[in-house]
Amino acid sequence: MLILGAGRGGTAMLEMFLEDELVRVVGIADRNAGAPAFELAREHGIPVYLDPEEALRACRKFEHCIVYNLTHDDSLTAITHQVLGYAAATAGREAKLIWQMVTNLKRVKTELESSQRQLKAIFDHAMDGIIMVDESGAIQGFNPAAESIFGYAQADVLRKPLDLLLPAAIQADGTAPMQRFIALEEPADARAAQLLAVRKSGETFPIELSASEMAFDSKRYFIAIARDITERKQTEERIERMAHHDFLTGLANRALFRDRLEHAIAQAARQGTRLAVLFLDLDGFKSVNDAVGHEAGDKLLCDVAARLRKIVRAADSVARIGGDEFTFILGNLRERTDAERVARKIVQAIAEPFEIGNKFWSVGASIGIAIYPDDAQDYESLVKAADAAMYQSKRSGKSTYSFFDAQTRE
């Protein structure tokens, strides 16, 4: 290929042919030494000519040499026929049409490359993980954010099943999320589903996954956007804990205790079983608190809570409902003596001295016990009954326990 004319048209034509392995550009000619295509030609080792006839004579050395005349000088077409001896020149309207086609192709190519660069920049710089999966469930795309989230390099996961990252075995329903999606058992768009994923290290963590389907070359693909929500879950758990647990001891607070007791009452009513509510008030706590200060008093309450946790069963509940008051739920009682046995253990455990500030301090536990359904059948009545029984223990000399007795209730 020989190009006559090194202006805009010649530049566009040269750029196109440089990318075509089937075409060899043997020269470009223009009478203007500063023609823009000359610099590009020299960069690629292509001869440049200021004399078009010299360029045509050089072209004659090749068996098949096609000439594109983009100079608007029709006389060069006649010279081409004379020098080469065959109709190998494209000029005039034909050349203009080809130039326009090449220019349009270049513009479309430039726009496409720009669009591809933008998409790649989005793909590479997105903060969320982007995973492309084909209809067989194999991973076909994995952006840098996904590498950071899951700990795998892209090369490690390409063409591997998505189950590598989202195993069915750890999902709540035991099925593979994307396999359901691919099989169209779920809607064409799955938004913000919370799932469990696995990092390369084997660590399990929560993600939020959104997925959508697309078609390309008559094939189905799925684009999944994955976001690590570990911190969000931890924050939610902290907020949940703060709302339902005592900030000092970590025990259930009054709100959670009420919820648990109401649930336990409903369950006992369905199953025809009994439960006990214990109300504990520390004896002598105020004296210790006044003597050593609130900070030491807080430590004493934490130590008390630690001892109480060790006494109750995992299925039972212990709560701090305020100050030095603690409550308990003991479920599935066979006999009243079951509650009595626990109360006795609590009294004995609290009677052991506590070490506060390199000194030992003694407190006691006065406990009241109310039984469902014998003494009361609802939350308020049970707690009041246990509270009344606790005051009976105070009157009986403290550091003891008493069952509710309606006749002695204050």
Q: Quote the beta fraction.
A: 15-25%
CATH homologous superfamily of the largest domain? Reverse transcriptase/Diguanylate cyclase domain
Based on CA atoms alone, the radius of gyration comes out at 42 Å
**Whole-number average pLDDT?**
87
According to CATH, what is the class of the largest domain? Alpha Beta
Uncertain runs with pLDDT below 50, 5 residues or more? none
Provide the fold topology.
Blueprint: E1 2-4, H1 8-18, E2 27-29, H2 36-43, E3 48-49, H3 52-59, E4 67-69, H4 75-84, E5 89-90, H5 92-125, E6 129-134, E7 139-142, H6 144-150, H7 154-157, H8 177-182, E8 189-198, E9 204-216, E10 219-228, H9 230-244, H10 254-271, E11 274-283, H11 285-292, H12 294-311, E12 317-322, E13 325-333, H13 336-351, E14 354-356, E15 359-361, E16 364-372, H14 379-395, E17 401-403
